[in-house]
Amino acid sequence: MTEPRIKAGIWVAMALRLGQADGQFAAVLKRGDADAGGVLAVLRMPRGLSVLSQIRTNDGEAAWMRATGPDPVSQEVADAYVARQVTFDPDLWVLEFETRNDLPPFDGKIV
What we know:
Layout: H1 8-21, E1 26-30, E2 39-45, E3 48-56, E4 62-66, H2 75-88, E5 93-98
């Protein structure tokens, strides 16, 4: 059974507040559909960047995938990935978080 889904705009506001409450930079790079837009989270880490993409597991559970791979990437690689995804889904939200521990400020399973 899938869990209830919250509107994207509300989820984004919560994620930004969590980042800022932890004393980390958090920003919306691209505003998506407030009701049903997907989310990409760009993590700015000490060793580079990583882009997380929302996914659903086989059980319907919400999770995150390191879309740019397991290792940090350059700004150019992250930007190119985000640009491709926005081309496929113009309703997509793109958030950026500065992180010291390579993890987003929000809870979520990373696969």
